[in-house]
Amino acid sequence: MKHKTQMTFPVELTFEVLDPIEVEGVTLPAQLDITKVILTVVGPSGKPRQVDLIKTLSEEELFLLEDDIIENYGEEN
Q1: Which residues pair with 37 in a beta bridge?
Q2: Tens of pLDDT along 8-61?
Q3: Cα–Cα distance between 46 and 10 in angstroms, integer?
Q4: Residue 38's beta-bridge partner residues?
Q5: Pick from 38, 40, 32: nearest CA to 69
Q6: Counting Cβ atoms within 10 Å, is residue 21 exposed (0-12), middle (13-18) or buried (19+)?
Q7: Going along 1-77, which residue ranges are E strands?
């Protein structure tokens, strides 16, 4: 038997802030680039293992995460 459901797990995001760039006289704003989305799970031996989930996320999901970082990063700094 199988059952599908949704679960929420805490993940650690690693990102870079890319400098603004100028293209044809127009300055584009700084951009975020998410480089890792790490989920820590416990393996069969009981040792924690880190799994990078970035390649399992769609472009839309990455954009939503970037928006969330921009909102919260501005409040923290």
Answers
A1: 13
A2: 989 999 999 989 989 999 998 888 999 999 999 998 999 999 999 999 999 999
A3: 19
A4: 12, 52
A5: 32
A6: exposed
A7: 12-18, 21-23, 26-28, 31-42, 48-52
Burial of 38 (0-12, 13-18, 19+ CB in 10 A): middle
Give the CA count within 13 Å in the CB-facing half-sphere of 55: 2
Tokens of 55: 């390649």
CA 65 to CA 72: how far, in whole Å?
11
Other beta carbons within 10 Å of 69? 15
Please state, in angstroms and as integers, the Cα–Cα distance from residue 22 to each residue in 3, 15, 28, 29, following that order: 51, 22, 6, 9
pTM for the structure as a whole: 0.73
What is the rounded CA–CA span in Å between residue 54 and residue 47? 22
48-52 vs 12-18, strand pairing mode: unpaired
